[in-house]
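Render this sequence as a predicted structure.
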Amino acid sequence: MKGVQCSSPGSGNLSSTSISIYVNGGSAQTLNLANTQVLLDSASNYYISFIPMNVRFTSSIRVQQAGPQSGAFVSCTVSWGLD
């Protein structure tokens, strides 16, 4: 996994979102988006800058988004690459 980026129509939605990454069936490594810089694009959508990572796995990887509160919308995209 090379990185993650999230967007939302509301900035508060991003700060209450987290991303959990499970590598090879192990326990979660969690990114809390509350401490990220929230930016605004020309279409008035809020987003976080691309968070670069280099998570490698041998048998499995699972990426799970949690939050925000019910009824709010956050879209996250994960990028992948082959070494």
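Summary. The chain has a mean pLDDT of 89. The radius of gyration is 13 Å.
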